[in-house]
Amino acid sequence: MIMVDRGGETTEPKPLIMKGKRRRHDPEFKARVAIEALKNIKTSAQIAKQFDIHPGQVSDWKKQMLDGATDLFGAGKKKSDEEELEAEKDRLHAKIGQLAVEVDFLRKKSKQLGL
After folding, report:
1. Is residue 8 part of a domain?
2. How far apart are CA 88 and CA 70, in angstroms?
3. How far apart (Å, rounded) are the C-alpha atoms in residues 30 and 18?
4. Which residue in 34, 40, 93, 102 could disulfide with 65, CB within 3.0 to 4.6 Å?
5. Which helix (H) or strand (E) holds 23?
6. Sequence-ordered alpha helix ranges (H) in 9-54
7. Is the pTM of this model over 0.70?
8. Does residue 66 belong to any structural domain of this protein?
């Protein structure tokens, strides 16, 4: 595609040059940034400059950490509930097995007695 500028000269459009690949941050790095933001000692802009990230990421990661905090403290209770359910399930399976053995025994004895 050929473009014409104000002076009447024709030019080729410049290709868009990306700064580089999109950076991926590991969870430990995100947690470090979020903890720094939660301390409220520095502004988001200062933290972003320190860690070389966009200020929007600081507030996003801080919000994610605050949202995930309830899951962190609630996980222990959920685990104990799951353990209780698993123990109850095991107990019921054992009871079913015991009752199945008793029914088989009583069937054999009733046949022997002609009942």
Report:
1. no
2. 27
3. 24
4. 34
5. none
6. 27-38, 44-51
7. no
8. yes
User: pLDDT tens string for the chain (115 positions)?
Assistant: 566 666 666 666 555 565 678 889 999 999 999 999 999 999 999 999 999 999 999 999 999 999 888 777 776 666 677 888 999 999 999 999 999 999 999 999 999 998 8
Torsion angles phi and psi, residue 3, rounded to 5: -115, 150
Report the amino acid identity of residue 31.
Answer: A
- Angstrom CA distances, 80 to 22, 55, 107, stand at 41, 39, 41
Q: Of 14, 9, 56, which Cα lies nearest the Cα of 37?
A: 56
| Single-letter code of the amino acid located at 96 | I
Tell whether 5 is covered by a domain: no
Go through the chain and tell me how many residues it has: 115
Instruction: Show the tokens assigned to 47.
Output: 């933290």
Q: How far apart are CA 8 and CA 110, in angstroms?
A: 110
Please indicate, yes or no, if residue 39 is contained in any of the structural domains. Answer: yes
